[in-house]
Amino acid sequence: MAKRGKTFQPDEPLWHADHRRPRTRRELISQGFRAGMGTLLGGSVLSLFADPRAAYAALSSDLADRRTACGIATQGAGKIPFICFDLAGGANFAGSNVLIGQQGGQMDFLSTAGYSKQGLPGDMIPSLVNPATGTNDFINSELGLAFHSNSALLQGILEKVPSAATRGLINGAVIPARSENDTGNNPHNPMYGINRAGADGELLALIGSRSSDSGGNSLAPMGLIDNEKRPTKVDRRSDVTGLVDVGDLVGLLSQEDTVAVMESIYRISDAKLGSVNTGITADDVVKDLVRCGYIKSADLADRYGDPSQLNPVADMRLVGGAEAPFTLADVDGDREFEKTASVAKMVVEGFAGAGTITMGGYDYHTGERATGERRDLRAGRCIGACLQYAANVGVPIMVYVFSDGSVFSNGMTDDSEGGAGKGVWTGDNQQTAASFFLVYDPRQRPTIIGSTPEIQAVHQQIGYMRPSGDVETGSGIPAANNVNLLVDTVVLNYMALHGEQGNFVSTFGQTLGPSATMDMLTAFEPLASVSNGVII
Fold it and tell me: Where are the domains of the chain?
């Protein structure tokens, strides 16, 4: 059929006749009236990521030995970097992007009507076999997880991950799960849980594109919130380079001289404090805090006296290099790309343990298809950029993608160039909602649990859909109809990548049921890049 309705550019706000005028910040973001932002999760100040980095102005050995006593860990938690994308407004994932099938997994196909509800007309459904080749031409499994071959989200990812070798080191899983439409009240954000599972960073606990308790558009589960880890806002390069302030000395002296001055201050102060009181009293606590304060200042200048070390634009593996996912024009010309580069730099380099990137304007049921395709394409480019940057740095990464609710099609098609003959997005529908995650490991493609393809299929798709294209809420999968338990399922899978899923109950409680159920909810074997719970 002919194109229906006005199409919208990626940053153009969306007006919906069936929605009230947006009033809250979350409603403004989901309909694209405000830009989404980015969040980052890390841990205690100055804990370093597993990959050791040489100091720029090495701290003197007598003071370097004091770092451990002062709680300045220079190796960090060593956990897998974690980035999640919060696509505000109710984006489509099922069918038109990631394939979701019935009980047998992604290839246990839905009915034609079910795929139509998910935006795929009868001549594009994944079950169609090309008689000339005997293959399903609408299925693409280059990333391990099966996508529809015409997925705009997939197109964006592959654009930023051009190498077949890198694509071959990625795998993923999908979780059919209902969540409320168009609301930030879904407790979707897993960042506090990821932190409690051990993810930690070098500089910060949580950073994000939004000044909210979760750092993103959606809420974090109340039971996981730790007020000491509340996000610091980061959504542009200046937010990253401004994270560390070692004072005016670095502007007046060289980095090496600044460290030397701070070391001297420590030694003088230490000598004076040592002569004040020799008893074991409360004064000892104060003395220790003063001593460690100077050590930490020297350590900051030692490692971060040059702010360019944190600048995403100065990292040729991320921006401007031959294999970098972004060009300088990308980050200068598109705020979503600058935001993604800023968060990716912090998480992948280990300055933070995990992060959320909120992207607005995904409430795209505008009576046509082109608007949603453009926005899915850009989201895919941002997701792919995170994966490619991790590959360039040589570390594993887990990327989780979620949205508040979803959309459906009434079967009409948009035959414009941008709509590509796909079903128009007609309205909101939480029944078609899902989340998914992708995992990259530089050593080998992550291995799905299971000794046979049939077992692997039901671990790669955690839950299933009815033939009608709706989430099966009676599947026995706790996440299918409970967003809090969806978060727990994601955290369980993060822990499983480290071989630590056995610690879930002691850390979070028996929220996901008995061990047999938890085994069913786990997608991957521990990564080849992990040993004893940390990256090697």
Answer: 25-55+67-241+322-535, 249-304
